[in-house]
Each structure stands twice: as structure tokens, then as C-alpha cells.
Design a protein that fits this description.
- There is one protein chain.
- With 452 residues, the chain is an alpha+beta fold.
- The chain folds into two domains: 22-126, Fumarylacetoacetase, N-terminal domain (SH3 type barrels, Roll); 134-448, Alpha-Beta Complex (Fumarylacetoacetate hydrolase, domain 2), CATH 3.90.850.10.
- It is built from eleven helices and 24 strands.
- A hairpin with a 2-residue loop joins strand 2 (38-43) and strand 3.
- The protein binds the ligand O=C(O)/C=C/C(=O)CC(=O)CC(=O)O, calcium ion (CA) and magnesium ion.
- Residues 136, 138, 143, 147-148, 206, 240, 256, 376-377 line the site of ligand LGMQ2O6W.
Length: 452
């Protein structure tokens, strides 16, 4: 038997028995269906092929409103997302019940076991959904105060009244591990009086939380925040890579344009809301302001869970030596140094995804299965970051610089903007239903030089 019961879950593994995130993967040509994209769930160090379960009748006893058919052979999770929330929950429950039952055919039938489990090391992950629209919001008051202070601007009154947002570009969205090609744009370098088209010198990240919409919202129909829960298919980590010099120049008087449209990375695994159903929530601070009834949520059910984010930069040290008129630059071959620079928490946001969905629909704006809603940069107040004072509570470098927070050196150099060769990973962890730690699996990117 390739995978025996109980599946070993290492303490630092994000994919325990009560997380079960969904994703789209492919394998090498000699493994299973090879390079065909298909759906799976992550468990321990494996992906469980969902079509193999479906074809072996695992969901026949599951009450569903319509047959699953070949839904798990789709190249995205959109078709599965259109099943009613009760169906999606029932499918997930069946998977959990089988994985946690030593007498399931999953563990007893050798051929099935071999076909169903594929080691994570043998797969390639793809975008989990075909993304139909993308909005990026501005939901953290801590971030808004710090970012706007840098521009000597007050937080606008509207911030407290609804979740502010801007329309993003779907073409910018890529799955974790996609390289970050340094973007080029028009901006003024210090000391010049006109903009020059050049690679950004102020490349930044933004820690965000994304939600995928399951069911469409017809144009003209207003969804209230209390109705939004069942519309959410699942959550991903999102990094809204940003160029601050381009942004500073272009955002007068419009919103962000090229400064945000070169890349937005998301984690590959979509965590279902049910995985977080027992994870603590804190009532969103927006409830204490004057908000429209359509944006009101229940104190105990609003989606602002205790999800702990961290950011790690990986940078190689550079040794310079000057001998005999020759300058030698050596990138340390001893591997990169990893440094934690940020820790923040979803529970510190001002607005939740339920409220973002309600606000998005409030104008009569239609929404589709596969719409992605980013939370905006997520920061936490400094008093929450007690364990390690070197780590900032700010969800991006611009804000860390605005707060004059001194980060530890990385690769022997001060940490300012992202450099070519830097790797950056955002992780997110929460408490799953069985009390174990569960995670998103990270969203990572390597910065590579601009294409000139
Ligand atoms: O107006 C500002 O200060 C900044 C706006 C943004 O950077 C847009 C954005 O991505 C918002 C966010 O991530 O919170
Ligand atoms: Ca953003
Ligand atoms: Mg971006």
C-alpha cells in the first residue's frame, strides 16, 4: 500500500485532515493522467485525485442536487463551485470521512490507493479558478492610516462607511511560484524633472486575503453581507505586488494602474470556508461605525477569522572584493538567508469579505463564479506583534518605511525595497476544526530582472 492509514501529518505541514483545500494540478506524463489539469485536495504530503474518488463511487452515498459527472476533470474549479453550498460541503465531508477512516477502500484497495494519492513533490499546481473579474479592496484601517500618513492625507470618511475598492486586471493574476519580472514604468528618478520609462526602483509586496465567488450574482440584485457567506467558494493568500515609484506618479487623480497590473500572485490551494468554521472570529470594527444595514454582519459570523500571516524574504549575500584592479562580485553560494519581516492577522481588518461582496453588488454590479475579491493590504497594530520586535505588523514595505520600522538586515544588506534575486513568501495559518494548525501552503515569488 503506497499511502497507509493514518496519513502522517508533520507538525509544520499545512494540510491536515480537517483542512482539505482544493486545487488544480497536473503531473509528469508518466504519472496518472499526466499533464492534463484536474482537481485534487491536499492531505499531508499528497494530493488526492478527486476524479478517481468520483469514478470509484465514493460520492454515490452523498446527497447532491445533481450528479458530479466529470466535474473534477475540469481544468478549473469553476464548475464545482457552481454546485450549491450544501453540495460542496457534503463533498468535502465525504472526503474527510474517508481520509479519517482506516477501513475506507482508499486504504484497503491497493490499485485505488496507488491511483488516488500522488506525492506533492510530483505535481505542478495551476490557477485554481478561471478568474472572471478581480477587485482589490482597502480593508485594513491600520494600513490606511499608515499609508496615507506617508502622503500627509487623512483617512477618507468613506473608508468607515463601506469597503473601498478599485477594479484590478485579471491578466495580472498568476499562481504561486510565478517569477516576478521587475516591471517598467514612467516615473521621476530623484533629481530629474521629467518622468523616464525605466525599471521600478521601489518594488513592494502586499499581504492580502482573497475570496473566490461560488455563485453568480445577477446584475441589479443586491446581496446583503448576511447573505454573502454561501456565495464564497473559498479563500487564498494573495500578494498584490506593487511598484511604489510608478504608483506615486500615476495616482493623481486616478487609482492604481501600471503600479499594480504587472503581477498579483495567489496561493495554489483554495481553503473552503468550512475548514475555518471553528477558527475564532472577532467582530469587525466596522460594526461600531455608521454603516448601511446591507453591510451589517452578525458579531459571531462575518468571516474575519484569526488567520495569522507571515512574510519571509530570502536573499543571497553579495561579497565584494577588490584586488589587482579587478572588482569581484560573488553571490554567496551557501544558499540564501531567510528572514521573517512581517506578522499580521486577518482579524485586525476593518471590513470582511461578506461586506466586500455586499458592497460590490450594491450598485447593481453583476458578479460571476470565479470572481476574485482581494482584501487589500492587511496590517496589525504594533502592540499585537510582541514576540519579536524586529518583525513589523505592516503588510507591505511602503508602510514599514512610513512607520520608520527598522527591519533586520537580509543577506547582509539593509531591507528596503525588493531586489532582483529576492524570494518572498507569504504564509497564512489558522486553527482547523480538530484544533490542529492548518495553513494555505504559501504564496511565493522570485524577483527577476526587468526585460529591457
Ligand atoms: O490610496 C492609497 O494609499 C493606496 C492605495 C493602494 O495601494 C491600493 C491598494 O492596493 C489598497 C490595499 O492593498 O490596501
Ligand atoms: Ca492591494
Ligand atoms: Mg499587483
Amino acid at each position: 500500500m503506497g499511502v497507509s492509514f493514518p496519513i502522517d501529518i508533520a507538525p509544520d505541514c499545512p494540510f491536515g485532515h480537517h483542512n482539505i483545500p482544493f486545487g488544480i494540478f497536473s503531473t509528469a506524463s508518466d504519472v496518472g493522467l499526466g499533464n492534463q489539469r484536474r482537481a485534487g485536495v491536499a492531505i499531508g504530503n499528497f494530493v488526492l485525485e478527486l476524479d478517481v474518488l468520483a469514478k470509484h463511487g465514493f460520492f454515490e452515498g452523498t446527497t447532491l442536487s445533481r450528479p458530479l459527472g466529470d466535474v473534477f476533470l475540469s481544468t478549473d474549479l469553476n464548475a464545482f463551485a457552481t454546485f450549491p453550498a450544501a453540495d460542496r460541503r457534503a463533498v468535502r465531508t465525504t472526503i474527510v470521512e474517508n481520509l479519517t477512516n482506516g477501513s475506507s477502500a482508499l486504504y484497503k484497495d491497493d490499485a485505488l490507493n496507488t491511483a488516488a494519492f500522488v506525492p506533492l513533490g510530483k505535481i505542478q499546481m495551476h490557477l485554481p479558478m478561471t478568474i472572471t473579474d478581480y477587485t482589490d479592496f482597502f480593508c485594513s484601517l491600520v494600513h490606511a492610516e499608515n499609508a496615507l500618513r506617508l502622503l500627509s492625507l487623512p483617512v477618507p470618511q468613506a473608508f468607515y462607511e463601506y469597503p473601498m475598492g478599485y477594479n484590478g486586471r485579471i491578466s495580472s493574476i498568476a499562481v504561486s511560484n510565478t517569477d516576478v519580472v521587475r516591471p517598467r514604468g514612467f516615473f521621476r528618478s530623484p533629481g530629474t524633472d521629467h518622468p523616464i520609462y525605466q525599471p521600478t526602483q521601489q518594488l513592494d509586496f502586499e499581504v492580502e486575503f482573497g475570496a473566490f465567488l461560488a455563485s453568480p450574482v445577477e446584475a441589479g440584485k443586491n446581496v446583503t453581507a448576511r447573505e454573502a457567506e454561501d456565495l464564497i467558494f473559498g479563500y487564498v493568500l494573495l500578494n498584490d505586488w506593487s511598484s511604489r515609484d510608478i504608483q506615486k506618479y500615476e495616482m493623481h487623480p486616478f487609482g492604481p494602474f501600471h503600479s499594480k497590473s504587472f503581477l498579483t500572485s495567489i496561493s495554489a490551494w483554495v481553503v473552503m470556508p468550512e475548514a475555518m468554521s471553528n477558527c475564532p472570529c472577532r467582530a469587525p470594527p466596522s460594526l461600531s461605525s455608521q454603516i448601511s444595514p446591507t453591510l451589517e454582519v452578525d458579531d459571531a459570523n462575518h468571516g474575519l477569522h484569526d488567520v495569522q500571516f507571515s512574510v519571509k524574504v530570502s536573499r543571497k549575500s553579495v561579497n565584494l572584493s577588490l584586488s589587482d584592479r579587478t572588482l569581484t562580485i560573488e553571490i554567496s553560494g551557501k544558499g540564501a538567508q531567510d528572514v521573517d519581516i512581517v506578522r499580521s492577522n486577518l482579524a485586525d481588518a476593518f471590513w470582511s469579505h461578506y461586506q466586500m461582496i455586499a458592497y460590490q453588488s450594491s450598485s447593481g454590479c453583476g458578479m460571476s463564479t470565479g470572481d476574485l475579491l482581494g482584501s487589500g493590504t492587511l496590517s496589525s497594530p504594533p502592540d499585537k506583534i510582541q514576540e519579536d520586535s524586529k518583525v513589523a505588523g505592516n503588510g507591505c514595505l511602503a508602510e514599514i518605511l512610513a512607520c520608520k520600522h527598522i527591519l533586520p538586515d537580509v543577506g547582509g544588506r539593509p531591507m528596503q525595497w525588493l531586489e532582483d534575486g529576492d524570494g518572498l513568501t507569504i504564509e497564512g495559518w489558522f486553527t482547523a476544526a480538530d484544533g490542529t494548525k492548518a495553513g494555505f501552503g504559501g504564496v511565493t515569488g522570485l524577483v527577476v530582472p526587468a526585460v529591457l
